[in-house]
Specification:
Strand content: 15-25%
Strand order of the largest sheet: 4-3-2-1-5
Oligomer: single chain
Mean pLDDT: 79
Low-confidence stretches: 1-18
Distance between the termini: 53 Å
Number of helices: 3
Order of helices and strands: HHEEEEHE
Largest sheet: 5 strands, antiparallel
Length: about 120
């Protein structure tokens, strides 16, 4: 019984440490066409915390959009993508391939858009 009581707090702490970072204020998502400045703010914040992050620019037939692709935790290389609408979404993609990241992120967020162009800033 003592072993179970000792393991539960450790599991809770580990679970908190594995959650993706959320470093944005309440203003995020409130302004139209603010995706690029928001992405820049988050990428800079993640860089300060030692988390590899890249600003992802996605062009589809319908629109252009900016998001942030980042590795979290940095040493485990799990790829996440953040934007103001869907927040942090974990994907299976090549972190060095912006088209792959964009395609997998759009698929994970149930968007049916094709990705004719994607690039990292």
């Amino acid at each position: 019984m003592k072993t179970v009581a000792a393991i539960i707090p450790v599991m809770v702490l580990c679970g908190c440490m594995m959650a993706p970072p959320v470093a944005m204020s309440d203003f995020v998502g409130q302004a139209e066409n603010a995706c690029l400045p928001e992405a820049i703010i988050l990428a800079e914040t993640l860089h300060k915390d030692g988390i590899p992050a890249r600003i992802l620019i996605i062009k589809t037939a319908a629109s252009s959009h900016a998001a942030v692709a980042f590795l979290f935790p940095a040493d485990m290389s799990s790829v996440w993508v953040w934007d103001a609408y869907s927040q942090s979404v974990q994907i299976q993609a090549d972190f060095d391939n912006p088209v792959d990241v964009a395609f997998e992120w759009l698929k994970a967020t149930a968007r049916e858009e094709l990705v004719p162009n994607a690039a990292f800033l």
